[in-house]
């Protein structure tokens, strides 16, 4: 497994990721688990539901590429097809056409005919972990027995099962709840059990079907943190679907936006940010604000990676002796990098500001002129 | 009629009712459980979807359930003779009771199993479990409280049916009440029979409810460990009830 640098690490050496605590000299090894190997690939994935003569296309030719070791978020509104997509990855849902490859194995070829899963497909599924929105824990079993269930299916001995289960419960921070029943746990604890259970078969891939959607914001953060830690510690590839932009923002390396059964945008977070007019980038970093007068130029400044550390706005003001208003800004840590967008207003028309804009572009920033040409960036969805 | 005259009649009748209900329940549960599960599995969208099989089983169950028991008993005479060698007596009465109990219990099982969260089935599928694993580790254990309640209902229904077993000489408490209480105007004996039946039915209902509730609330009360242990201790009792009664 070769560890490659991520694209944005290649243009500038020694990136300094933390504006608050600059780190001169030594770049910290960030998410070194991501490689260029695709561990989940879907191509031309289509799912059509037929009921009573009506056809509903849930997936319409979806091509998804998830690299090994990354956290990949698929975001979309309900009904966009993201749930069908994740359920097609382990073939809980049979795609109408197209292929699904997980860890080099073509699952669609294993499926066979009919709705029943053959032995080969079941074995492949046991190597893919899955966590659910509503946890799906057996109420008749204790926490430990729930975690042991996948191991029972794999035919492990009782001793091995309980050793592994306790180890996993320790990993998710629930060692003391082994003998409790799910009904005695809080939502966040239940999801931790769900995660421990999903990891029991030592999967390379974890599918997360809206795992945090039933949780409150604080619990959501702790569960996402856990997923992130597992991704780093175990090199686990995580494919998650969500309707919450915050989930993508806090843990995803890459993201895809789904609309009406299609993936309309996808890429690493910084690639998305660098794409002019990206809806995902706009939603991740919503900036608002209208021009205060007719004689004004409004710019969207996009920082990706290290340029966010430069005090560009004050440099601009000093160099050209102009007054700059900040209309809105959204700068955040995405996948451990400081990235974001800022909407600023310069006095004078566009024609008067060509030089300052050129200066900003020279600094390695991406500048979109708002209201110039086509409206490049849609308003943030947030 | 003095107590010393009634006493042997009553104890005979009690043991006959007990024998009939015990065996017919055992057969109804053993046969009705897989039938009820099959009804769920073969249904549209089920794990073993098979519309034809589902229709056929469903139809048999419907007919069996809606048939008045007394007619079923008479209609099954030749089958009873083939199984037990006779059409008269306690043993012979067990056959129609069991046949009547199977579809009754199967429908209750179907309802109970259908209530199991589909998400749990999916979770086990995602772990690579096959249909048999799902039945064994999800459907039956998760539906267990309802299944116990269903067994209770079946036992009580079979006690009711067994009163008609007198028509084929099966004996039992119902038969005693009819022959002595009604035909011979032994009102006292009739009331004693009624009282015994009332007590027995109440006890069974109470025990069944208690077992189902303890299983259902497993862990729901975030009480201390001793409480849990108490509930755990009752689990075998629940199993016993379904076996014995």
TrEMBL record, chain B:
<keyword id="KW-0813">Transport</keyword>
<feature type="transmembrane region" description="Helical">
    <location>
        <begin position="146"/>
        <end position="169"/>
    </location>
</feature>
<comment type="similarity">
    <text>Belongs to the binding-protein-dependent transport system permease family.</text>
</comment>
<protein>
    <submittedName>
        <fullName>ABC transporter permease</fullName>
    </submittedName>
</protein>
<dbReference type="InterPro" id="IPR035906">
    <property type="entry name" value="MetI-like_sf"/>
</dbReference>
<dbReference type="InterPro" id="IPR051322">
    <property type="entry name" value="AA_ABC_Transporter_Permease"/>
</dbReference>
<feature type="transmembrane region" description="Helical">
    <location>
        <begin position="63"/>
        <end position="82"/>
    </location>
</feature>
<feature type="domain" description="ABC transmembrane type-1">
    <location>
        <begin position="14"/>
        <end position="212"/>
    </location>
</feature>
<feature type="transmembrane region" description="Helical">
    <location>
        <begin position="20"/>
        <end position="42"/>
    </location>
</feature>
<keyword id="KW-1133">Transmembrane helix</keyword>
<feature type="transmembrane region" description="Helical">
    <location>
        <begin position="189"/>
        <end position="212"/>
    </location>
</feature>
<feature type="transmembrane region" description="Helical">
    <location>
        <begin position="88"/>
        <end position="106"/>
    </location>
</feature>
<keyword id="KW-0472">Membrane</keyword>
<dbReference type="Pfam" id="PF00528">
    <property type="entry name" value="BPD_transp_1"/>
</dbReference>
<keyword id="KW-0812">Transmembrane</keyword>
<keyword id="KW-1003">Cell membrane</keyword>
<dbReference type="InterPro" id="IPR000515">
    <property type="entry name" value="MetI-like"/>
</dbReference>
């Amino acid at each position: 497994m070769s560890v490659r640098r991520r694209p944005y690490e290649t243009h500038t050496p020694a990136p300094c990721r933390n504006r608050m605590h600059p780190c001169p000299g030594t770049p910290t090894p960030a998410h070194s688990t991501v490689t260029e190997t695709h561990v989940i690939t879907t191509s031309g994935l289509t799912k059509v539901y037929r009921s009573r003569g009506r056809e509903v296309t849930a997936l319409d030719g979806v091509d998804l590429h998830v690299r090994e070791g990354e956290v990949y978020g698929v975001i979309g509104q309900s009904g966009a097809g993201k749930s069908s997509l994740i359920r097609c990855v382990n073939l809980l849902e049979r795609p109408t056409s197209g292929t699904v490859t997980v860890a080099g194995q073509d699952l669609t070829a294993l499926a066979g005919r009919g709705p029943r899963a053959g032995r080969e497909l079941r074995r492949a599924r046991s190597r893919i972990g899955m966590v659910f929105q509503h946890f799906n824990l057996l109420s008749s079993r204790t926490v430990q027995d729930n975690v042991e269930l996948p191991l029972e299916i794999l035919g492990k001995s009782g001793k091995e099962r309980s050793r592994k289960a306790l180890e996993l419960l320790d990993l998710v921070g629930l060692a003391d709840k082994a003998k409790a029943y799910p009904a005695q746990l809080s939502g966040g604890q239940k999801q931790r059990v769900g995660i421990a259970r999903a990891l029991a078969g030592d999967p390379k891939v974890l599918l997360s079907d809206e795992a945090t959607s039933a949780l409150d914001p604080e619990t959501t953060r702790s569960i996402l943190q856990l997923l992130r830690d597992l991704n780093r510690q175990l090199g686990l590839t995580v494919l998650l679907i969500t309707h919450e932009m915050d989930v993508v923002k806090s843990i995803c390396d890459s993201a895809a936006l789904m609309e009406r059964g299609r993936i309309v945008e996808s890429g690493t977070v910084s690639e998305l940010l660098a794409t002019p007019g990206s809806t995902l980038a706009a939603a991740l970093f919503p900036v608002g604000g209208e021009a205060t007068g007719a004689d004004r130029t409004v710019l969207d400044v996009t920082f990706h990676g290290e340029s966010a550390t430069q005090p560009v706005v004050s440099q601009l003001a000093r160099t050209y002796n102009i007054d700059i208003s900040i209309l809105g800004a959204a700068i955040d840590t995405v996948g451990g990098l400081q990235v974001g967008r800022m909407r600023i207003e310069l006095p004078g028309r566009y024609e008067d500001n060509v030089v300052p804009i050129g200066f900003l572009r020279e600094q390695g920033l991406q500048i979109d002129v708002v209201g110039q040409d086509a409206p490049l960036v849609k308003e943030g969805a947030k | 009629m003095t107590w010393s005259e009634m006493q042997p009649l009553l104890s005979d009748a009690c043991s006959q009712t007990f024998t009939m209900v015990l065996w017919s329940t055992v057969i109804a549960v053993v046969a009705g459980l897989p039938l009820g599960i099959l009804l769920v599995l073969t249904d549209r969208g089920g794990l073993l979807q098979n519309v034809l099989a589902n229709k056929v089983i469903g139809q048999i169950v419907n007919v069996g359930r809606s048939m008045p028991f007394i007619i079923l008993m008479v209609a099954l005479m030749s089958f009873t003779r083939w199984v037990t060698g006779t059409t008269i007596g306690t043993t012979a009465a067990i056959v129609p009771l069991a046949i009547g109990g199977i579809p009754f219990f199967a429908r209750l099982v179907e309802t109970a199993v259908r209530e199991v969260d589909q998400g749990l089935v999916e979770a086990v599928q995602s772990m690579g479990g096959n249909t048999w694993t799902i039945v064994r580790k999800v459907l039956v254990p998760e539906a267990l409280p309802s299944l116990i309640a269903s067994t209770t209902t079946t036992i009580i229904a079979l006690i009711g049916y067994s009163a008609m077993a007198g028509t084929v000489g099966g004996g039992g408490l119902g038969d005693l009440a009819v022959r002595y209480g009604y035909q011979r105007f032994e009102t006292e004996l009739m009331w004693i029979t009624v009282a015994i039946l009332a007590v027995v039915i109440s006890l069974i209902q109470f025990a069944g409810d208690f077992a189902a509730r303890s299983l259902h609330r497993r862990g729901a009360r975030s009480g201390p460990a001793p409480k849990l242990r108490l509930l755990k201790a009752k689990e075998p009792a629940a199993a016993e009830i379904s076996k014995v009664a």
